[in-house]
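RECORD TYPE: protein structure
NAME: MazF family transcriptional regulator
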Amino acid sequence: MRRGEVWWVQFDERRLVVLLSGDETSGFEVMQVVAPAGVDISGLGVEVPLGAGEGLPFEGVLRLALPRPGFTPCTWVTTVSRDDLIERAAVLSSEKLSEIDEALRLGDLG
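PREDICTED:
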């Protein structure tokens, strides 16, 4: 299990997450793949598209809110244990990881 892998986990239902960091002892920081916003979120957030090109069964995004005063952003980042990881779905390219790193930086998470 390493950064950039996409795994199925069981939350309230089976969902895809991207491993961002961590290890088996302390847990893995992950970001959930969610449906695209479907509207322009410029100035509010950024979305990194993921889908068939990465070997995923559906089109989704990693969505990060942009920080601003008086606003608590929701970025879909959480920590899971090794036991939460059900099955590896894909491994992201270095180019896609660079896009994610830039989005994390913009969201003050990287």
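COMMENT: The longest strand covers residues 14-23.
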